[in-house]
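Morning run. Coffee first, then this:
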Amino acid sequence: MGVLVTYNPKKQEKTVNFLTLTGMKVLIATEKPFAKTAVESMTKIIAGAGLEAALLEKYTDRAQLLSAVADADGLIIRSDKVTQEVVEAASRLKIVVRAGAGYDNVDLAACTARDIVVMNTPGQNSNAVAELAIGMMIYMARNRFTPGTGSEVSGKKLGIHAYGNVGSIVARYGKALGMKVYAYDPFVADKSVFARDGVVEAASADELYAGCDYISLHIPATEQTRRSIGYELLSKMPRGATLINTARKEVVDEQGLVQMLTERTDFKYATDVAADIQGLLDEKFGARVFASEKKMGAETAEANINAGLAAASQTVDFLLNGNRKFQVNK
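And here it is:
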């Protein structure tokens, strides 16, 4: 059972607008909790601003979240799902902050219809995810650290699909390992960033996949990207290629992936988000596929704390000052 804990701001002598904020509450609702130190700092930020902080952790029943959010003005989550049902239960809700970069676990349309601002915390988990991507490359190159001859990543070509916060860090680490780094991202406005970072810009996804030994995925799951990484793209990759996915499972066409792994016994796939058919992949392709038991990209103490503090600060800044800097449902 989840436990709901409430923190009330201590009385202070400073003349802050506590009276106008009386009763305003921020709920931190996490089925997979933040680190203890992160929670302590988050509640200090919230309570220190004169707001009430409430904590719901490790809840096992959806009804617990619906009850806890009923009188919340702000909601901070991790991978927890904010559905139409949650929005309808939260009559006072003004803002939802997803501690992390991805926000496909939030029903943006439902929030927008209720004038609820949705934010993410871009960049806070980036280094943790980038390190995991590099770690997975080396893990697969060395045959998952099992006996036998592996290969080195140095001298290989690394392709980065989407060059945002995470992608740019992966590029830096790849170069440090002696890899030749390429990237494809049509949404990067300032194309000079590639040259500054010593990265070769690919003209298309086809070109990126055809030329790289490793592809690291960093694209979000949208209507345009879901199942976009399939057999047609993957089959262009050179012999001995590896696909690394620390993004979202939905961006990979799983049937196309199966076809690729079946036809190309040299191909490998490592993911931080287990496929819907992961059992089949493990059984059929063995050591050529790897999936972490649960999403580990942001599971470092540093990322946990950084994302939590950013979420708390952004929530407070919006409720007190109306700052919408990181709003994603514009």
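The chain has twelve helices and 13 strands. Good start to the day.
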